[in-house]
Amino acid sequence: xxxxxxQRFYEVAKQEAEATALGVAYDGExxxxxxxxxxxxxxxxxxxxxEQGALEGEYFYxxxxxxxxxxxxxxxxxxxxxxxxxxxxxLPIAALEALxxxxxxxxxxxxxxxxxxxxxxxxxxxxxxxxxxVQDDPALTEVTQGQxxxxxxxxxxxxxxxxxxxxxxxxxxxxxxEDREMSPLRIGPRGEIEERPLRYGDVNEVCARLSxxxxxxxxxxxxxxxxxxxxxxxxxxxxxxxxxxxxxxxxEKGGDPLLEIQKFRPEAILLPNDWITAMRPLLSSLxxxxxxxxxxxxLRWGVQRRRLRAKLGKNLRxxxxxxxxxGEFEETLKLLGIRSLAAxxxxxxxxx
Length: 352
Description:
By secondary structure, the protein is α/β, with parallel strands linked by helices. The chain has helices at 5-15, 35-51, 69-79, 93-102, 118-124, 138-143, 151-160, 162-174, 200-214, 231-244, 257-264, 273-283, 295-311, 327-335, and strands spanning 20-26, 29-34, 59-63, 83-87, 105-111, 130-133, 148-150, 181-183, 186-187, 193-194, 198-199, 221-224, 247-250, 268-271, 318-321, 339-342.
């Protein structure tokens, strides 16, 4: 039986300890985080959840956040057998309340929001153990009657209680199988809720297809700026790099895609929709010769092709997107020798 993404994560973190796992921008700076560091954050956060009373199979909600704590929190929650429900920020309160009734939350990752419309709703939820914050917020801690804790406090509790929960943590991690459910829902490319469970085996299948699309060459880096609450984006940008031991770089929202690509020179990119819009004029500039005998046209086309490849970082081999690419966009990519692969949200496993 194949390893699940959680089991693979700990194997890769052991083998590639000093290599860079994540590239993230926060607090105005870019940080490259090694595998051992990400592993420690996820593991001890998971142990901290056990110290807070987490039980296998309970639900851990996460509101979308650009902070790396979001990634550690999800991996840590999965490690100790929780089912995660990542949600986009723009989800209506009525929809969230309906989800709470069906899948009652034990933990809610509020992220770096200090005030949110969900807080009155959270105060009414029975069985909610903790609201997890990026930073301590005394005001929020007071209104949630002590339920709100920072990621760091739960992480530190996990370090202190490691010996106490180590056996349970190892058992939960080892017991994960491909038929186990990771999440009861999937979130589509526009934040729409799809009521289909996501299982570990589904992730394995999609990751295998992504690897096939990229080819056999060694890949070091994937670049994305997508919303990780979306299921396909999360598989591409967070889970798949774990299977391939590849660095996942999360670009800053609103940045110039070409500058980001030239800076990081990735072999693969997950294109958010705004990047597709920004790159269309550039890709439409490539015009192949009109005939096989048009020597000046062939020379111009060769120069155009080399310049365009340089603007795309030279190493780029594959583009992934949550929605189908425009037809002319795909044609240009073929001329450049770059593969493209779009999610199929209605398909059983996005790409099948």
